[in-house]
Amino acid sequence: MSSLFVVRIAGACALLALVTRFGAILAAPVAAQSVGQLDGKNVSIAQTNFKGRSAVQVIAAPDALNAASYAVVKSVSFLNGTIEVDLAGQPAAGAGGGARGFIGIAFRLQGNGAYEYIYLRPTNGRADDQVRRNHSTQYSSHPDFDFARSRQEAPEKYESYVDLEPGVWTKYRIEIEGRKARLYVHGAEQPCLIVNDMKLEPRAGGVALWVGPGTEGYFSNLKITAK
Fold first, then answer.
1. Could you tell me what percentage of the chain is helix, strand and coil, using 3-state DSSP and rounding each to the nearest 5?
2. Integer Cα distance of 44 and 199 in angstroms
3. pLDDT tens digits, 173-208
4. Cα(165)–Cα(31) distance, rounded to whole angstroms?
5. What is the mean pLDDT of residues 123-134?
6. Contact of 189 with 96, CB cutoff 8 Å
7. Predicted local distance difference test score (pLDDT) of residue 33
8. CB neighbours of 107 closer than 8 A, spacing ≥ 6?
9. d(Cα 75, Cα 170) in Å, to the nearest integer?
10. Neighbouring residues of 189: CB distance < 8 A, sequence distance ≥ 6
């Protein structure tokens, strides 16, 4: 038996459905997605409209440390499957020079605060610097395997280039299976980042809308499909 959990962030409705092996669908409509269905940590959350579409705005607290800012989707447990979302990230007003509009998804969040995450650096996508472009995407694991450690131990292995622009709606999809992850951007058929050795033991956990330091982020059309 497989299960399908769909959450439409800021959409007209959300749907919780169970899909059996025979293809039957047992569905029950739930309340429209709202900020009340998100539990924020070191972020502000607001319902808004961004560049022509309804969205949830998530802004990192000015004093938040790296990997400390996210909004957990309530009542979701995820181990393996696919997470899709439209997102747009840009440096927040007053952000420091190192801000990149860091934005992505955290998954398998545990009660002790550990989680895996894959994110984008939108300002790097078209930078006039090849090294920065090569750091457009990133896999990390909190708390012990951040971008700095990955660059020290395995340079370039957990990062890649993909064309991005800050503040522009971007289709983002990750496929998760055991310790493997694949990131697809812009609806591409091939992944732009491949990870075969995620660092945490695979355990079901929460899913969160993730933003890095100095980020103003927007999320819409979240869809979580569990295997």
1. 5, 50, 45
2. 29
3. 999 999 999 999 999 999 999 999 999 999 999 999
4. 33
5. 98
6. no
7. 54
8. 78, 83, 115, 116, 117, 174, 176, 205, 206, 207, 208
9. 26
10. none
CB 90 within 8 A of CB 216: yes
Q: Global pTM? A: 0.88
pLDDT of amino acid 103: 98
Q: Would the pLDDT of 32 be above 90? A: no
Round to whole Å and give the CA distance between 211 and 30.
26
Q: Which tokens is 205 given? A: 């956990």
User: Residue 69 CA to chain centroid, in angstroms?
Assistant: 12
Residue carrying structure tokens 């370039």 = 156
CA distance 217 to 174: 18
Cis peptide upstream of residue 202 (ω within 30 degrees of 0): no
- pLDDT class of 20 with cuts at 50, 70, 90: very low
What whole-number distance in Å separates Cα of residue 122 and Cα of residue 112? 30
- Tokens, residue 107: 């998954």
Query: Which of the listed CATH numbers 2.60.120.560, 3.30.565.10, 3.30.365.10, 3.50.50.60 matches domain 35-219?
Result: 2.60.120.560
Question: What mean pLDDT comes out for the span 97-112?
Answer: 97
Which residue, 225, 224, 223, 222, is CA-closest to 56? 222
